[in-house]
Every structure is written in structure tokens, then in C-alpha cells.
Design brief:
- By secondary structure, this protein is mainly α.
- The chain has a domain of 44 residues.
- The chain is built from two helices and two strands; from the N terminus they run H-E-E-H.
- A hairpin with a 3-residue loop joins strand 1 and strand 2.
- Helix 1 packs antiparallel against helix 2.
- It is elongated, with a radius of gyration of 24 Å.
- The two termini are 39 Å apart.
Length: 94
């Protein structure tokens, strides 16, 4: 860098320089990338929240042994396997 500002109207010289491949002009690539990450994280958290709500419903009434932990019945194991399968399919599509 020779101390010239990267963005028109900017008074600061940036140490990282991004050039848009479409318009061949300096672009704020870092901001758009971080926004995409935030949207992806929110989508994943929303989906995980739905799964967690379903798990709470499934675990309702299951006994918790102080030494063994949660005792799962075969029906609950099947439901958890279905939830896991559904989650895997959901993330493979995106």
C-alpha cells in the first residue's frame, strides 16, 4: 500500500484491499460476508431451537435416574433417531 485510501471518500488507508470481480472496483466484501454468516447462524439456531422444543416434548415424562442419567425407552430412541435424520436432511439441502 502506498497510503492511498481504498474507498472513495475515505480518509483512512486500509491494510486489506478488496476488488469486486464483477465491477473491478473496491468493495466492502468483509461486511457482506459477515452478514451472510449472521444469517446462516440465525437460520441454524432457529432450526436447532425447533429441534430442542421437540426434544423437550419427547422427554416429558421420562424418568431420570440419579446414577444412570436419562432412561430412554425404545419409542423415545426411535423418535430421537427420526429427529437426527430430519436434521441431517435439512442441512444437506441448504
Amino acid at each position: 500500500m502506498n497510503g492511498m485510501p481504498d474507498f472513495i471518500g475515505s480518509k483512512e488507508a486500509c491494510t486489506v484491499y478488496y476488488v469486486c470481480l464483477k465491477c473491478n472496483k473496491p468493495c466492502d466484501v468483509a461486511a457482506s460476508k459477515s452478514q451472510k454468516r449472521i444469517e446462516e447462524i440465525e437460520r441454524r439456531l432457529n432450526f436447532q431451537g425447533k429441534i430442542l422444543q421437540k426434544l423437550v416434548k419427547f422427554f416429558d415424562g421420562i424418568t431420570i435416574h440419579p446414577v444412570k442419567g436419562v432412561i430412554l425407552t425404545s419409542e423415545k430412541k426411535r423418535q430421537l433417531a427420526e429427529l437426527n435424520e430430519m436434521e441431517q436432511k435439512h442441512f444437506q439441502k441448504k
